[in-house]
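Hi,

Apologies if this is the wrong queue. I'm a grad student, and the batch job for Prolyl oligopeptidase family serine peptidase from Streptomyces telluris produced an output file that my downstream script rejects. I'm not sure whether the problem is my script or the file. Here is the sequence I used:
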Amino acid sequence: MSVETGVTRTPARTATGKAVDVYGRPGAAGAPAVLLWHGMGPDEREIVRPVAEAAAAQGVVVLAADWRSDAADRGMAHLLDSLAFVRERAAEFGGDPGRVVVAGWSAGAGAAVATALRPDLFDGWRPAAVVGLAGRYDVPARTTGSVPLKDLADFTGLTGIAGLTAGTAPAPVPVRLVHGTVDDQVDIRSSWEFAAALQGHGWPVRLDEPRTDHAGVLGSEFDPALGRLRPSTAEHALEGGRITARALVEAAGATA
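Support response: The file is valid. Your script probably expects a header line. Output copied below for reference.
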C-alpha cells in the first residue's frame, strides 16, 4: 500500500493473460470504476501509475491495463479484453460495473473516447463517461477501427441499438479532455477541434489545458535511459498530473 495515498495496487490478469493493475482504497465497495489505457508503448501500464494512484485516493477504483499497439490488430483485442474485464469483474475489486469510465492517454485517448461513439459495436453498452488525455481524434481508434470525429458526425443516425426504442438514437455521453499547452508530440489543436465538434453536436464536454507537455499530463517525464516515462518532480508535470487525476474523478462523479 502507498503510505502517502492509502491506496493499494492489486495485480490481476484478463482472460487472455494481459496484466491489469487495480488501484483502490482498502475496503472500497461500489466505487466508480475507471479503466485507464496507456499509449503506443507496448505493455506500459506502469506509466499511468501516478495519476491512477492519485485518482484512486479520491474515491474511484482505477484499472490500468496493458495492451500492445504493435499487435497485428493494432491492439484492439487487448483493449476490448480489458473492457470486458472491468465490466465483468470490477465488483471483485470494489468497483461498480454499472458506473464505468473509460479513459486513455495518447493513442489510448481516441480508443477510450470511441467506446462512447459506437454502442453498435458493444451490444448497446456505453460508458458512464469518457476521458481523453493528450490524444488525436482524427485517426482510426484502436477499439473500433473508425475515426472518432467521423463517428461523432454520424452518431445521431445510429439506431437499432440494444435497449433503445426502435428508431431512437442513443444519448450523448459526458466527455472530459485534458491536453498540455506545450505538448510537442500531439498538438493541442487536436483537442480543440474535437471539443468544438462535441459542443456543436450537443455533447457535454470540458477541456482542461494545463501548462505542461505530453508526458506531463500523466505527472511524468520521458527517461531516455529507460526508453519510457517515469514519475516527474517538475512542478508543471505535478500540476498536470493533479489536473488529470481530478478529471478522472470528476468524470466518474466520485467524492473523496
